[in-house]
Amino acid sequence: MSRPLAFVAITYSFAIVMMGTTMPTPVYSLYQAKFGFSVLLVTVIYAVYAIGVLTALLAFGRWSDSLGRRPMLLAGIAFGIASAVVFISADSVTMLLIGRVLSGLSAGIFVGTATVTLVEMVPEKWRPQAPAIATAANIGGLGLGPLVAGLLVQYLPQPLHLTFAVDIALLFLAAVVVVLAPETVAVAKGARPHMQRLSLPAPIRGTFLRAATGGFAGFAVLGLFTAVSPGFMSGVLGIDNHAVDGAVVSVMFASSAVAQIALRGLGASFAMRAGCAVLVVGVALLGSALLAASFAVLVASAIVCGIGQGITFSKGIASVTAELPADRRAEVTSTFFVVLYIAISVPVIGAGEAASAWGLVTAGVVFSAAVAALALIALVLLAIESRGNHATIG
To answer: How buried is residue 287: exposed, middle or buried, by Cβ count under 10 Å (0-12/13-18/19+)?
Structure first.
């Protein structure tokens, strides 16, 4: 396979694997009706995905350097196929939980390896666009999952089976193109993989705290929106169209991807302050949508929250890694991702428990207020840092 064709093939594989991780989103309500579980359990099923991602990042994050890119990409695809098979045959909540953990392992293995592979494989004339293409494949794939699954669930038969059968077929094609693509790592004989350690060097702890606070707020609202917005639309707004459910969640991911690509030239410090401010506006819109039971405001909140999340995430990583030598970036980046995936899981479960006790609307409004407060704290910390830097320069 030629280098340009291999680059396109790996981009396709990246998007398809990430798409598979969010395809269950419009299906949760069907499983909820089938098994009769609560909103809390919906959030738990969604959140255990983070366990798989974190396990993969820490246990397998550096394996592709020792074993080669292709074996790890194929391992990520295999976990994705296993997850889809479990969902197809699910006859209990336990199987749904297992399916989500397998999906997290798939994403955790694939995202780091595929990003590095694209950078190594990119043709010279496309090199300046490589980070944007990787972002589009990653976040774009996440956004496609709810959209494609929503259409399949709403308009075609056997929704609990067809959705994941389509996922399996696309993943098998991804495996074929990975096998045909060239290996970009010269694997040394006797090389042994190592676990990815976590690290937070003292000189960057302040920068890390500011970036992680904004990133935590962005990922928390991303997790909540993905987990409970379909239930809100059906239970509060009376919208029983799974395609619409999937499209609204997809809008948030699309906004995140567009913001990361379009605003990549902005300075990290200014962009993070702007991202936190946008997040405050976004969660205020989300709270308003819940109180007013407004679909239009809900869509607006998805767009604004997606933009805020995209900026705080991409610029947060950029600000943290910019101050590090190359040999420390992997471990600090992994530490950053641990914070983000705690944000996408633990608060969401708390919101689910609150929804069971207070109702979805009240819990959502309280959660929105908490995220807004966290984003404001990050904004204040970033503003203090910026003022201190200007004073030093002056």
So the answer is: buried
Higher pLDDT pick, 61 / 169: 169
> How much is the mean pLDDT over the chain?
87
Q: SS3 for the chain, per residue? A: CCHHHHHHHHHHHHHHHHHHHHCCHHHHHHHHHHHCCCHHHHHHHHHCHHHHHHHHHHHHCCHHHHHCHHHHHHHHHHHHHHHHHHHHCCCCHHHHHHHHHHHHHHHHHHHHHHHHHHHHHCCHHHHHHHHHHHHHHHHHHHHHHHHHHHHHHHHCCCHHHHHHHHHHHHHHHHHHHHHHCCCCCCCCCCCCCCCCCCCCCHHHHHHHHHHHHHHHHHHHHHHHHHHHHHHHHHHCCCCCCHHHHHHHHHHHHHHHHHHHHHCCCCCHHHHHHHHHHHHHHHHHHHHHHHHHCCHHHHHHHHHHHHHHHHHHHHHHHHHHHHCCCHHHHHHHHHHHHHHHHHHCCHHHHHHHHHHHHHCHHHHHHHHHHHHHHHHHHHHHHHHHHHHHHHHHHC
Residue 131 CA to residue 64 CA, distance in Å, equals: 19
A 10 A CB-CB count for 227 gives 26
Is the model's pTM score more than 0.85? yes
